[in-house]
Amino acid sequence: MKFTVSQSSLMKALSVVSKGMGANSTLPILSGIYIKAADGTLEFQTNNLTISIRHLIPANVEEPGETVVSGKVLSNIVKNLSDAAVTFEGGERTIEISCDKSTFRLNTLSAGDWSGFPEVNPERQIELPCDLLSTMVDKVYKVTSKESSRPILQGILLTVEDNTIRLVATDSFRLAVCDASVESPADEAFRAIVSGNVFHDVLSMPTLEDSIQIGITESQVVFTFGTTTFVSRRIEGNFPDYKQLLPASCATAVDIDVAEFAAALKRVSVIALTNASVRFDIDADGRLMKLSASSPEQGESSEIMNTDVEGQSLSIALNYHYVFDCVNAVSGSKSLRLELQGSTQPGIFKSNGEVNYLYLLMPVRL
């Protein structure tokens, strides 16, 4: 095997497939990158038994062949090379990598032991705009659960129906829902539960194009864009019936300026080091909202904001870390609406725009 490829193109390809390398696998081959050179094309593959990634790039191939090399070592080498042509030669037991005045000789693994890329024939698939989908995933990604005991809560529910994309995530303490219109909807409703980490990784890749194909089989989800294919194990189970948590009306509604609210919350929460609770006191008559926090060790803080209030006066306490996640998700918006039913009922933040966003948060004890 012998081929030459630019350092920048190679680095980009490795950054794509590295997401699929096994981190602490007892099988060395799962920590490797499979490379195949043929017909002016390099094919890279990784597989950690949960996800598989394949990516193709053009190259000057003099001798076809295939090999498996340590992904971590290869990535560290390539990112430190000068921006010049990189030549690979060998492959059966060792491979020589040369670039400018640098030369490396790496031990390789047998390509015959590589499991091969999974053959996936999606039962259903849909094409969606990458920019819009990426924006939506960023808004709900942090709400997915980090607890492995309930895998379904580590996923994001994706539905496409009636010209609308909807993403939903929950960790049982909070719920995030975002909707957006889509110009080329599916002929019939599309529904899939995708790992939040996978969704985020796919839509953070440098090889994304204008649109992405998402397909589902009984056990897998496959993402296809450009010359990249990303296959992930599908999360099994029934997603929680989140719609029953959304009330039809509210007792109190507050319209909040996002920038002013973010700054006030940041100042008040400085005191809440050991207690993450921030109290919201809504004064309907005075059209005010008071934020306050207290800590036995540090003291107290408070700030008053002028707001538009509908309904009755009401108080509620919320975890400010979770509120900040909501504020960050709507950072591009000017206004945010807070709807409340009572001090022991969930608070609901809403923001409307190109992407409509709803964030439900369970209260903490006053």
From TrEMBL:
Provide an example Pfam family for this protein. DNA_pol3_beta
What's the protein name?
Answer: Beta sliding clamp
- What sequence ranges are listed for the domain DNA polymerase III beta sliding clamp N-terminal? 1-114
Record function comment:
Confers DNA tethering and processivity to DNA polymerases and other proteins. Acts as a clamp, forming a ring around DNA (a reaction catalyzed by the clamp-loading complex) which diffuses in an ATP-independent manner freely and bidirectionally along dsDNA. Initially characterized for its ability to contact the catalytic subunit of DNA polymerase III (Pol III), a complex, multichain enzyme responsible for most of the replicative synthesis in bacteria; Pol III exhibits 3'-5' exonuclease proofreading activity.
Question: Does the keyword Nucleotidyltransferase feature in the UniProt annotation?
Answer: yes
The subunit structure is:
Forms a ring-shaped head-to-tail homodimer around DNA.
Which key words are in the record?
Cytoplasm, DNA replication, DNA-binding, DNA-directed DNA polymerase, Nucleotidyltransferase, Transferase
Q: Enumerate the spans annotated as DNA polymerase III beta sliding clamp central domain.
A: 128-241
| Species, as recorded | Paratractidigestivibacter faecalis
CDD domains with a match to the protein in the record? beta_clamp (cd00140)
